[in-house]
Design a protein that fits this description.
The chain has 245 residues and is of the alpha/beta class. The protein is 36% helix and 22% strand. β2, α3 and β3 form a beta-alpha-beta unit. α5 crosses α6.
């Protein structure tokens, strides 16, 4: 598949986002027995316009999405957002939460930027992550500095500051910063899920890296987690093997 090779230099198990959603919905139907219209979908993704432009159409077969995410996909909607959307779910269905920081990869495999519609040069992707990384490298992030004027960006800066050594010594800093961001989002989603009340049988958690390509490449995705929790028994099972098979 065209351009997939450029993406797989960085993310060896990446698929196009269209294939990703098709596999996701097929796996849920086969192993949990639920159709798309029984799934109340929330996403925690960056508010960057490129994510709306490259959103896979079949995802709209699910109910939603309810947007939990702000800059770089951190679930800034918090417990209020999680509980609000939890009460919209069909009683015989499931909640599905897709969460992912995003990163750009160009046709030639350059990571951290993309060519956007109507622009001649490349621009940063994720811009917030690259901005926070720039401040981290320059030693400009102050421990505990979170303002109301730039709350979301300041939160990302703090996440990066707490992993400063790991990010700055990495072979590729923006790749590593995105991994750090994924871990922070994953940890927060797990906390929010424990705090919320869902009037349905299952919660499905899908964690990933969402990869934006150049304007004529489309988007891609590499899963890191695909779990479902039976709320009646509290049993949890991974469907990653089934998803990739």
């Amino acid at each position: 598949m065209e351009h997939l090779e450029s993406v797989r230099k960085w993310y060896p198990k990446a698929l196009t986002s269209i294939d990703t959603v098709n596999r996701l919905l097929d796996t849920i139907e086969k192993y949990i027995g639920l159709k798309p219209n029984q799934l109340m979908h929330a996403d925690s993704m960056c508010c960057d316009d490129v994510n709306a432009i490259q959103y896979p159409p079949r995802a709209y077969e699910m109910l939603g999405p309810f947007h939990l995410g702000g800059l770089d996909g951190f679930p800034f909607a918090g417990i209020t957002g999680m509980n609000a959307f939890a009460h919209h779910v069909p009683e015989d269905g499931a909640v599905i939460i897709f969460y992912a920081p995003h990163i750009g990869i160009t046709k030639d495999g350059t990571i951290g930027e993309i060519s956007r519609i109507g622009q001649s040069g490349n621009s940063a992707c994720c811009g917030a992550a690259k901005g926070a990384l720039g401040k981290l490298s320059a030693g400009q992030i102050i421990e505990g500095n979170i303002t109301s004027l730039d709350f979301q960006m300041n939160t990302i800066e703090q996440i990066f500051l707490h992993q400063k050594g790991r990010i700055l010594t990495a072979e590729n800093q923006i790749f590593e910063a995105t991994e750090v961001m994924y871990e922070a989002i994953d940890e927060r989603i797990e906390v929010l899920v424990k705090e919320a009340n869902y009037p349905c049988k299952y919660v499905i958690l899908v964690g990933a890296i969402f990869i934006n390509g150049d304007k004529d490449m489309g988007s891609f995705c590499q899963y890191k987690k695909f779990d479902y929790i039976n709320l009646e028994t509290q049993q949890r099972k991974s469907l990653m093997t089934e998803y990739y098979s």
